[in-house]
Every structure is written in structure tokens, then in C-alpha cells.
Amino acid sequence: MTGKIFIDEQDFSEIGRFDETSDIFGYKEFGDRLSNLLESFKDSSGVFLLDGDWGSGKSFFVRQLSASLRTKGASVILFDAFASDHVEDGFIALSAALYAKAKSELGPKSTTLSIFRESAKTAAALLLPIAARLTFKSLSAGIVNLDEIKELYGEHSDTLDTVVNDGGNITEQVISQKIEQLSERESIMKAFGCALNKLAENISEKSQGNGIKFPLIIIVDELDRCRPNFALDLIEKIKHFFYVNNVCFILVANVDQLEASVSGIYGENFKARTYLEKFFQYKILLPERQRLSDSKSEIYLKHLVSKQKVAFQSPDETWSITQFILVLVEKYGLQLRQIERIVTNLALVNRATNRQYLTISPIVAGLCVMRIVDPIAYDLARKGKVDWETVENFLTAGESRKHSIDLEKIIGEWEAVWWKFVGGGVLTEDIIARKRAELMRYRVEDPKDIVVAMCRYIDELAQN
User: Fold this and answer.
1) Is the pLDDT of residue 69 over 70?
2) Where are the extended beta strands (E) located within 273-386?
3) Using CA atoms, how far apart are residues 18 and 175, in angstroms rounded to an integer?
4) CB atoms within 10 A of CB 399
């Protein structure tokens, strides 16, 4: 087996704790301090917001933190908000994650688990008719099995019937019922809080080691990537229903993006930052920790190339291609997530082809980047219609349109020659003759056919 390929950009399953191999950004000290802080919240509660720019490595860090915490005896739930935002209600989505975690830790026959499930069912039945009108509209269209929902909601199915039959509109009768049920609502939510507290306590006791006790830690990642309505619903539900002893939340997001989401929903004049600050008590900032000799992009790029075992005909060629990609990454200011997609696509083509196939590594690598940063140019390339002006503009991130530049000094002599050959750039007759001779074994006559073939390899395997 040649090693793991990251099948999509969210697959961080092989990221380890803060050891010499995994701590590529030097976050160990920060991670250890945060771990100590979380330990101090045993038998209490807290909501932390981990802030950082898009692509700064927040997801990478929290997965390292999660692995580190687990080795110390903490029980951690990694909740991907972006992957869960197809669910209309944050309460349901988070309750399901808690239930799955508890089931694996305590076993399906746990009494505490059963109590939590019943209390969550009852609470969801009370919350959903008002909170998710669109859900019920979809029910009446037959998208969801109404009988199954009724079975879940039990004694509240009458209210559900009223809402569904009314086409999703909340009638005066339902509103009146809700006012009358206020006392019942408070009792139900209190019971849910107690059940959650006990569940978290049991999970923590099950996983703790070396006499160290942590609260149950729930990391909510990708809040700034999911639907704004879902993100806000989720943090509101956390504050009002999941804020209990023995549970700590780490919300992972770019604060500026969250503020934009709030403003988009409530209006530009709404005080978004003040509103958001109600939902977390502690704000922590992902530090800019990196080796002095390398940029964060370079560290991550080299890590991925090694991790995904990207290897060309020689170590020198692999190094050269890595440096070529790095030049483009830094010119375009790409985020870590984009770098991962580029290396994943390159790794897939690299693994799937051998010497039988025509693969020109600087062309494949460049096209993997082009696919991310310039889809229009890439579409021309796959059709064999790309011209030198478009290629040069891509390779220089637009600099060639402003002034004359020496492409060989920017991306490397070998890489520049190949791109000039396939793109129609100026080369000597001797170089052109040598390049054509190299392609004779593949029976390729038109250099543009190389680009078309490379695009086909990428498109057949690429992860978007």
C-alpha cells in the first residue's frame, strides 16, 4: 500500500497530536496551554471562540488538539458544521452528534443514553414546529415520512398535524398552545439540560486517564463556511440549551465572516459583533506560529507532498515541482485548504499513471493549480484552445501584463521551457526539436495535445 490520499478536503483522519512529525506549524506550546485551560473547566462549563483567518490552519490545529486531548484522557466530539448544515435545526444536528458519541462510549444499552435520547426527542418536538417552518413544508410535500416524524414527536404530533395541514403557517391556535405550554417548555428544557449534564459526566468518567479529569469537549468547526442561518441557529442553541456543567465548547470560525453572516440576516446597521459576543465567553486567537525559515504555505505544501507520497522520476524532480507549486501558491496567496486540493489532485494523477502514460510533471502540476485559481483558463486548456498570453498571465499571476519579466527566474528554467513549448511561447528551434523528439514515443505531434491529455487525467480523478 502506497499511503493514504486525502479523498476530500475534510479528511484529517491521519493528523496526530503535537509531536515532531505532526506539529508542522509549531503549535504544541499553544495547544498545551489550551489543554491546561480546558482541564481547569472540569465540573463547570465554557464556550470558547477560536478565531483565525480563512485558510490559516484552524481545522488542522483543532484536529491536532483533539488528538492531544484524547491521549490525556479527554473525550472530544469534532462537529463539522459545514458538513451538517443540510439539517434545518442546530438542536437536532448537535443532539445527534452527542447521541452517536455517547453510544460509542457508553454502549447502546446505557440508561443515561436512553434518558438523554428521550429528553432530546421531547425537546426537539417542542422546538421544531416554530423553529423550522420550511421543514414542515417539505413534510407536506412528501419529502420526509410524516409517520416517522409523528412517532418521534409522540404526544406533540397533534401540534405537528396542525402546522403541516396549514401549509407550514403557524395558526393562532398553535401560537396560543405555545403560550400555554411555556411552563411545560421550561420544564422540558430543564430536563434536557439535566440529561445532557449526566451524559457528559458519564462520558468524561469513561475516557479519563491518569487521574486527569476533563469536561466533555465539543469542537464546532467550519462555522464560517456553513449556511449563515444554520451557523447562527447553532450558536444560539448552544447558548440556550447545551450550556451545562461538564461540557465545554470550542467554536472555530473567522469572526469577521461570522459578523458578515449576522449583518446579512439582521441588516447592516445591526451591531453584529456585540450580538455574537453574547454567545461565547472566551475568545482565543490562533497564533502565527511557524518556522522562521519557511512560510506556513511552504511547511504545509511540503508536509502534504510527503504525506501523500507524491514522487516523480527522481528526488530532484519532486523537489523542483514542489518549488514550482510553491511559487504559484505564494503568488496567488492560496489558503491551506486550496493547497490541499492541489496536492490531492496531483497525487491522484501521480499514482494513477506510470511510464506508459504521457505525464509531464510541470504541466500536470501547473494545471492542478490553474484548475483552482483560473477556471476559465483551465477550460480553454482542456479544449486545446489556450494561447501563450493566457498561459503567461497564469504563470505570473498577471504580472506579465504589466511589464516584461523573465519567466525562467520566476518558476524555474525547466518548468518555463515546458510551458512555453505547450503554450506557444518563444523557444529556439533547437529546444523545440529536442522537445518534439522526447514526445516521439507517445506519437504526439501537436504540443497542445499534451495539455488536453493532462487535463483529462486530472478531470477523471480530481477532487473538487
Assistant:
1) yes
2) 282-285
3) 52
4) 15
